[in-house]
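Researcher: Quick test of sequence recovery. Tokens follow.
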């Protein structure tokens, strides 16, 4: 899954409307991320600690940050628990970046289960 798709799915899971131009789809920049339609600011939890933390809180995620593995757990509407594991420092990833990626990947997994247009 590419970064753009990951961001779009994470936004869907969090109920964040992304701005689009009606011609080319969602405003997206590889460095800045997507544009939040409500705040008109760039939104990129892959690069911004605050965006990642707000995403984790909004989706009630449990984030466990270890030296070797970062785990993110969440519950679905039926109470089933899911867990995603992201390599930490052992893989050479910088720990802050690895944590943001784990949160965003988990949110994208949640977003996949939500039908387009049925955001929270």
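Model:
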């Amino acid at each position: 899954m590419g970064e753009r798709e990951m961001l779009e799915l994470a936004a869907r899971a969090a109920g964040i409307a992304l701005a689009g131009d009606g011609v080319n789809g969602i405003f997206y920049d590889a460095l800045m991320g997507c544009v939040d339609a409500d705040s008109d600011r760039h939104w990129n939890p892959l690069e911004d600690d605050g965006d990642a933390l707000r995403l984790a809180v909004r989706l009630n995620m449990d984030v466990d940050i270890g030296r070797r593995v970062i785990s993110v757990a969440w519950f679905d509407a039926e109470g089933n628990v899911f867990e995603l594991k992201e390599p930490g420092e052992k893989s050479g990833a910088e720990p802050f970046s690895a944590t943001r990626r784990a949160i965003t990947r988990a949110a994208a997994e949640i977003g996949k289960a939500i039908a387009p247009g049925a955001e929270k």
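Helices lie at 3-14, 49-58, 95-112.
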